Amino acid sequence: MTNKPQQQVKANKTPYSLQRRLLLNTSIVLVFFIVAMSFVLLDSYKTGIRQATFERLYAQFYSLLSYADELEPGDLFLPEEIPSDKRFNQYNSGLSALVYDETESLIWKSLSARYDQEQHKVPLPLSLPGEGTLAEITMDDTDYFRFHYIAEWESPEGAISLYHFVILENKRPFDQVISAYRNQLWFWLSIMALSLLAILFVVMRWTLRPIRRAVKELRQIEKGLLSTLSDQYPQELQRLTENINRFIQNERHQSKRYKETLGNLAHSLKTPLAVMNTALQNKSNDAEELSSICSEQIGRMDQIVAYQLQRATSGPQVMMRSMEVEPALDKLATSLTKVYQDKNISIEVDVSKGLMIALNEGDFYEVFGNVLDNACKWTESKVRVKAQRVAGKVQITVEDNGPGIPENVRLAILSRGKRLDETVEGQGIGMSVVTEIVAAYNGEIDIDSSELGGALMRLSF
Prior knowledge:
Elements: H1 3-12, H2 18-67, E1 69-72, E2 75-77, E3 95-101, E4 106-109, E5 133-139, E6 142-154, E7 160-170, H3 172-207, H4 209-222, H5 235-281, H6 287-314, E8 323-324, H7 325-339, E9 346-351, E10 356-357, H8 361-378, E11 382-390, E12 393-400, H9 430-440, E13 444-449, E14 455-460
Parallel strand pairs: 9-11
Antiparallel strand pairs: 1-2, 3-4, 3-7, 5-6, 6-7, 8-10, 11-12, 12-14, 13-14
Helix pairs in contact: 2-3, 5-6, 5-7, 7-8, 8-9
Keywords: ATP-binding, Kinase, Membrane, Nucleotide-binding, Phosphoprotein, Transferase, Transmembrane, Transmembrane helix, Two-component regulatory system
InterPro entries: HAMP_dom, HATPase_C_sf, HATPase_dom, His_kinase_dom, HisK_dim/P_dom, HisK_dim/P_sf, PhoQ/CarS-like_HATPase, Sig_transdc_His_kin-like_C
Subcellular location: Membrane
């Protein structure tokens, strides 16, 4: 009971549109990029400011060194006031200097230094003489930059003394600059991100416009307002729209084929039904002969139904499996003789010995059943069928001694629904089916005048 509502909720959940997906994904990527870029820019700015601080304090060290003088080894003199930068002479100015001897004992400090050496001893790093270092330290809850340099001093007697020069600068101005830069950076990056999102929204709307147009056209096709999608689409969508159009055309063609197949089925069943009807009306036929005729024609009808169903679903089947021509033509001739026995028609069949044709059996009976039926329908008394191999092709000719077919309508009768004489029974279907099947096998149909005086139909495969 509990699973069904959950499944229904999942089924009713509307999936995100492409535009929403792109905007969401782009926003995530953009936010990640903005955050990463802000950290990179901030770190680069901090590094630049720190390097500038190091160089400035290095210069301050050299100014102090210029005022220093060694009275004797281990006894370095510096004036109480340093003229180069007045901040050294102002108490708690934020910039102070200290000098230690090689035993790390304080021997001088500037007037600005407010440190109690006993309570707040400045930690000295391990470094080599002649190597300046910059570090951040915290003293008395205040952060400082500490510049440290070990200077070697050689007396006239050649004695070398080491002195630790330390310059401390309050880190608060540095932090204030970084904070102001960070605020400005986030402000402008946020504006940039919002602007980029707005531009991306406009660009995606324009980029996805062909897809929206395709959806609109599909809805119009569903309503019957359009027949196919237009061909004015970007290159990336052309293959898709062409396939959709092809699918629509195939569906319509399939629907048309179903309708035509019903007509073809009715048309094909006429001959076996006529044979059985003639046999039933012929009182000279005994029960055994009547049963044989009906059994044969019912089997033929079953084949016709199976064949037409196959054509309805898959079209003409071009099966390159050869069949023998003579027995098939003899069977057709026998059936049609019974159908048109009241006309006392003579059907002459002349087939080259052992002639084979590469046609599906159902297609063969459909084609030549229609052609022979038309010949019997229009002939006065005689139909002649000749099958032979000519120049590598199987050529089957059907002639009659009827009125013939005028030259100006020979092409027209091959179209569906076209009939030569509206007074003669028929639906105008048979020859269109013949044309379709022959075309599927890349065959040819020629209509001419017969030596017998009527029409001549020549089919080549």
